## 1
Amino acid sequence: MEKVEFGDGKDRNGLLGLEQRGARVTDVTDVHALERTDLRPQGAVRPLVLHVVYRFDTGGLENGIVNLINHMPLQAYRHAVLSLTAVTDFSRRVQRKDVSFIALQKGPGHAIGLYPRMYRLFRELRPAVVHTNNIAALECAVPAWAAGVPLRIHSEHGWDVSDLHGSNPRYQKVRRLYRPFVSHFVAVASDIQRYLVEKVRVPQGRVSLIHNAVDTVRFHPVEGEQPTPIPGCPFSAQRHWLVGTVGRMQEVKDQLNLVRAFAHALREQPALRERMRLVMVGDGPLRAQAQALLQELGLADLAWLPGERSDVPEVMRGLHCFTLPSKAEGLSYTLLEAMASGLPAVVTAVGANPELIANGVTGETVPPNDPQALGSALARVAGDPGQARRMGRTGRLRVEKDYGQQAMVADYQRLYDRHRARSN
């Protein structure tokens, strides 16, 4: 499929590389040039869902959009992705060839300067649904409303470091300001649902709870008791006990807490130094800091930080234990993927983590910002491999029962169908 490019002709943000996958990325500086694309409805065609994000890059939110697009029945809806800033190679995870990606190249600050361009874009594409995600994209509901988009859905996926647990009054006011322009809200976890009702004052009937979900075919346990080797990993699953985390390395994910916890575990149980190893997959601003801290603590040879990986299922199957040291979460896709892979999980008690992880049953929860508690919990799990495997098996069963991907996709399709019927 062609890539349509506008403006100065520069290949910003690696967009040309997406051609190898067949994706079309439209770098929009001239909305009227969209007449050269096939996104506009022509006759009786499937309705278009336009997913709006701040940046289409590696992350749980974006992973959810990918899963929704890949697994919703082809005959139900067409899909496109609108990024206020950039579209990265993460878009290659979309398997459908009829999905277009649009990058607005927004600069810092409020997007009000883009409202006229977004208005023209929405009028050109005439989507049946504009589905915005998180507060950074919420304001796009205004030009969508002005352009007459009949259904405007907004999903809240979790918290950032500037708004831990939704406690920032300014962000509550911002969400209340844009509330009238949203037809219906979606929360991915029960604490976010309560926040929308109690703090943002969205009527309960305008909020749906749709849990994140995981592809339990793609993410599955290893056969037998030993993890499989991770390509490129310097550690052996037979000789070592690998505890790992996967995610963007940024402040809210708090990987520095994990480095300190790893050091505490080795101090608490010095015998673990022979076999316990740390795997931290992902890229971002904290990666260099984590490497420096490991070096300072004399642990650089006991940890592996390979950067971002596209083979996350294989990485999960190469670990003995998963850990999530975050300061805040919604309902973590990565945690669901780890549980689906049959891993015990040691996580901070934030967001929906305590709903997923029962102490001694599927893993352990510890307070956030407490490397001693996290390190002690990791040491306990490492000290009882049999119990660790039992917790991993129980976690897999929990995910299969309550967080199957087809149920999530069906919930979103029903939501679109139901509210489109009401708006027509």
## 2
Amino acid sequence: MKRFHASETRLTAVAGGSGPPCPGGRKPLYASLYFWVLAAIAAGILLGLVPATKGLAMQMQPFGVAFIRMVKMLIAPIIFCTVVTGIAKMGDMGRVGRVGLKCMLYFWAMTLCALAIGLVVVNLYKPGAGMDDYAAKMQADQAEIAKVEAYAGAAKKMSTADFLLHIVPSSVVDAFAKGDILQVLFFSILFGIALANLGGKARDFVGILDAFSKGLFRVIHYVMYFAPLGAFGAIAYVVASQGADALARLVFLMLGVYTTCLLFVFGVLGVVCKLAGFSLWRYLVYIKEEILLVLGTSSSEAALPRMMAKLENAGADKSVVGLCLPMGYSFNLDGTCIYLTMAAVFLAQATATPLDIGHQLSLLAILLLTSKGAAAVTGGGFITLAATLQTVSSIPVASLTLLLGVDRFMSEARAITNMIGNGVATIVVAKWENALDANRLRLTLAGRSCGDPGDGISLEQPAEALALAAADEK
């Protein structure tokens, strides 16, 4: 019988015989990351809801902040290594341009779909109807108004020209120090092209970067041991810090946003996956740990390194993953787009501001542009909404006070939808570019592939391993 072991660089077959590539069957539930993250989320919610433990729950925030910081400290170097080595090994600069163009075309199409679905649902659902008194009360709260003015002030500072200039870092060190994905990606693409043009002269350096990236993914594996603690701390603080009155008043909006995100994922993305030749459900099962990680931390960036590893493991070419996935985190924010349209129309409904079809189509056109800057600043979704309301002018900016208490609860839906959408985008673009191993994708999503990409194992399986898995599956 053949058995498999993991080395630092690839999975290899040893001995003789035949059989499945992963002996021993599935690992027990208690040994899975998603089990502990789910348990931590449940414990955090319980701690935050019980009145006697709310004070303790408020003190759990540092655990969530520390975990997200540990992940974010690795995102910039991982993107740099992945993009640079991918482009350098690709060699064909025309292909780099094609991948970038295909990514942007896909992103714009999905953004339009997300905005349109959000607009349709919020008009049918009408979550803001009958909230006139509560809206007036919140807009008269000076403390809440001060918070909104801070967001509105940040929104005024980010014009279209500023956003475009923001892509170019003032220095390479500054881009890495701030961990700005767009700026790191910009420099990485230029550097990767430079190394590709150097050819054989840069081969040794590219090898060093490749080895360095494997070390970074090994560090990510260590950091993931803290994921349950981070999810526990983050969710406990959020549940304890938000008022029950705000949750009760705005529960219909939250349900609407979550429902619309589900419609988008299983409707639009389901069709996209079907056309691309793979199962959406199996893909979601494959990234279940990352979904729970984002649910617990409210940050899609927390799962970025593992998503890059898993997409490579599923058969997408490293160069496409390195370009498409980081770009998606800035330009393909499907969940954020759904939230932006629904929140804007909700505020109009709550404040009894009339919005005819012309105004709503104008709002959609504005959001089609402003949503692309949502990741450029901290609190991007809320700031983008403030900037949009200032542009539209018919909806009072002060009405944003209604959303301050529950925005964090809706951020989970936004972040999870963003992450799922970006993973699908990467697989689709890889397929368009003939840079996807379809057989490997099928076997991986079916659970026939060895290795956890989060543990530092290389994502390359030998042909004989895949052949054995395919034969066993039959």
## 3
Amino acid sequence: MKSNYFFLLCLFVLMIPLKQHAQHQSNMVVVLHTDTKTLDVQQKLTFVNNSEEVLTTLVLNDWNTAYSSVQTPLSKRFSDEFYRGFHLAKAYQRGKTTLESMVDTDGFFLNWSRSENHPDLVCIKLRESLAAHQKITLNLKYTVKIPSAEFTKYGFEAGGSFLLKDWFLTPSRFANGAFVRYSNENLDDIVNATSDFNIELQIPSGYAVTSDLTTQCLATDSVSSVWKLTGKNHTNWTLFVEPKLSFYSFKKDSLTVLTNLKDEKISLEQQKRSIDCVVDFVTQKIGHYPHQQIVVSQTDYERNPFYGLNQLPAFISPFTNAFSYEIRFLKTYLNAYLKNSLGLDHRKDAWIYDAIQVFTMMQYIETNHPKTKMLGSASSFKLLKSYHLTTLDFNEQYSYFYMLMARRNLDQALINPKNTLIKFNEQIASKYRAGLSLRFLDTYLANNRVSKAVASFYKSSQLQQQTSADFETLLKSSSQKNIDWFFETIINSRDLVDYKFGSATKTKDSVSFSIKNKTGVAVPVPVYGIYKNEIVFKKWLEPKTNDSVFRLARNGANKLVLNYKNEVPEYNLRNNWKALNGFFPNNRPIKFAFMKDLEDPYYNQILYVPTLDYNLYDGLLPGMRLHNKTLLEKPFVFDVNPAYAINTKTFSGSGSVVVNQNYRHGALYNVRYSCNGSYFHYAPDAAYLKINPMVQFRFRENDFRDNKKQLLLLRQVLVNKEQSTLLANTTAEKYTVFNAKYFNSKTEVTNHFSFVTDLQISGKFGKLATELEYNHLFLNNQRINLRWYAGRFLYNKTQSDYFSFALDRPTDYLFDYNYYGRSESTGFFSQQLIIAEGGFKSKLSTAYANQWITTLNAGCSLYKWIEVYGDVGFIKNHFQPHRLVFDTGIRLNIVPDYFEMYLPVYSSNNWEITQNNYSEKIRFIVILSPRGFINLFNRKWF
């Protein structure tokens, strides 16, 4: 017996140092030069081959080099997300790593290279193969040029601080027979091998040092100070060097928390209580943090804030300062805690980090703030009582942010690598969906089985490297039920869950009902029996892929509700209830709400909004908009906006009905059927009525991040135009035009290309047009834009230029453009410019073409928003030779496409700038639609 104990003891002793001695080691001497924003580094790197493979090359992560040019994957991601700051950065703002020498222990220089696809990786060719479980020591000497913090919030700041992350060379993780080769794409997902660090850092005297590593000041004088930083078993860590220390230190048991989160005007004692509460909760739920100290920084929070309603400005914030601080600390602490200790592939297995983080946050709220509402204290305001928004619990907002993308058909599978996600998914929707999914499984399995599995998985990750497959195996072993559906459907696919009630019959003691599976995706769902808003029973059901029938004890229930507490991340909750009393069991009552609200599944919502529009002839148009558009997209939408015209003393307005049909697989992802109409005056004494039935087919690439968009539009435009006695050559007309358009565009911050074809067929004419547009932004902030337009009549039986191609101001016979004074030929409103058809800015004597037209519009920036433009083209009218036309001038591009001015200089009319009444020749673009401005900010997210 004793011999067995002795054997186990020896085995245990042998296993303990195995992990410790198998780590890579980095010993560095680093000197920070604050004036040049550089770090001189001498590094002794010991690489241990922990695999069973024989290695001939090594791969080091050098993510600082991602800031070196506009050709790196980091720069391309910035461009895709419409961030132009990096593209236009000065040389001193960029970062790079200059590798001066690399020698092995024998003093031989080693060959190394960077690939075109991964310039921020250093690939080292070994002189001799490195056998399994052997090690090699490299001596590196390099200079790190620190980038500006304006790009990613890490780097050098204007105030003199240095916020450093991923700046040193370190081995990439070796897994599955190869090194992980990821480039920096501003996702905080570097996959480093676990290493021990011993660093001597020299900085100017007076600067303070904060790090996840243990820090100690060794010496200081009037010029500089020397610090020692040490840490074992780290994959990543941050380093803050500041002229004035911004971090506070809080001790909780054996863990030191260093944080500079903005205090929101709460005392240090309140901060400590919040920090103690969070640390205790996370330790209890997940496990002990394996290192001695952790940094929870304002920088990390700003990179990944808590997206929710508590981001309202401070003066209208519905949450207390203490609660806001606690939530922000919880979010940031969990992020650092998991990233620094859970040894997964941060990019490939990102969903596990997100799931554990959000799931734990939801548990924290349920435990410590169970009565907190989504709108905080604003939920008690009497004026807001009628809004569904005020009735929801704090944790219910996660479902709405996920559903925002699902209803747009832009959600992505949780298993997708982090760098393939749309920004809104990467930052918000996929994170929240992951947490909701883990909570769903935990609720279904009961007895905190998932919570216990998370703690067990975290503990296992401290002993050896884990993968998502290990997490799946652990969850399945923790369950007595078959949960294959969870991974196949919830994690590995973007399939939607959507159930609805079918028929139901009842007796006094029981109820029988069918459940229809609208998507064919079978996962468990709870059914609740409700009596006077009280739950009288709850039962988990397991419907099949087709319709299922169930029989349950009624327990006095007068209403059945599927997924009552939204435990299942379901696509549509509006069809989840069945009344057991009444003649019309599914007739939801109407509920009116002012402005905007969240979708309320138990009411037919009608939102009303006062509106004020304007055109020259109707004058001011006060009206009332009635619609059912909530914050989530719906399959059926109506929107009517009747208005009263002050000038004409008549009713005007517009309206539309839309039916959306999404397709989850394939290039065609959305078909939109709609019919809209409008009635306004086009002259002081004449109005038009437009009816426009339409269908749109939207296409996208397999890569959701690809900014290429395609759309096919088919419509029939019916116009009834009254005669005006005030305008010459106008008659009452009724006409209809079939219109087919194809749009193909690809847009990013540095390049834009679009292609449009336009076919119009009517009894009086047929015409075909094509438009090409290209914009390019150069490194010196110079922009060039080119637009080519060509159109030709297939046949033309008209007797006027009303349907002709226009050189500078289309007649807009389809009433598509938002002209404020569409019939004006002189005066201020005639100077409104809409870039369409010929796209000219000067008004020329021959303004129309009834046979064919081709024009080229060009522009080039001179200084900031001042540009020079030029247009040239040919126009051809019947019985006339073709004519060459041109114009040039200055463009004041204040807000591109929304607020611009054009100042003509020279054209086919000769020198325009010297002619009389020059102010009448100036053209302007003004877009007053708030939706247009919102699109400027939304495009980086979707």
